[in-house]
Amino acid sequence: MVIRAHRPAFLKMPHVERGMSVGLFGGSFNPPHQGHELVAEIALRRLGLDQLWWMVTPGNPLKNHGDLASLEERVALSREIAPGPRVKVTAFEAAHDLRFTAETLRFVKARNPGIRFVWIMGADNLQNFHHWQDWRGIAETFPIAVIDRPGSTLAYLSSKMAKTYARARIDEDDASVLPFLAAPAWTFIHGPRSVLSSTAIRGERNAVIKVPAS
Fold this sequence. Notes:
Elements: E1 21-27, H1 34-47, E2 51-56, H2 71-81, E3 87-90, H3 92-95, H4 101-111, E4 116-122, H5 135-139, E5 144-147, H6 160-164, E6 186-189, H7 198-210
Parallel strand pairs: 1-2, 1-4, 2-3, 4-5, 5-6
């Protein structure tokens, strides 16, 4: 008799109903912090989303994984700060060996017909967005909401993505219609910002660990 191991619920794709508007907010969340929480809250409110999938990734292909906490730990911490029941913390990418955003979005689109998805990203990612694998494919799969982050308010204007898709940008006052638009379409949304960053938090944590006992 074959005994199948139980798959944790966080490895499953969240349930949705046809016609829903759903935000996709992915990251390593190593660790998650108030800045991520603010992005999720702003996206839910300004885009009029029914759900937001807080997608904890196996790891960012563009980053060093030397200090990456376990997937289980990052999921648990994300659940602690996720703002409300409309936010669904998930790590389904790990269950399907999905490593790049472009392939994740194609996977999600193929399995969820009739759902209006929006890719959500912090503005601090926009400067390097054109280095992501198949970045144009990402921009042309789902509409994108770029949420303001400290130090990125004006810098985003010079990004390759902003220049390439300048005509596809809509005013943030019309952000609520973004889920109903066909890609490519995007907007930049201003709002409350947190100076916290996962990199800084890890650096402070490592510094404390390295201080010898007196």
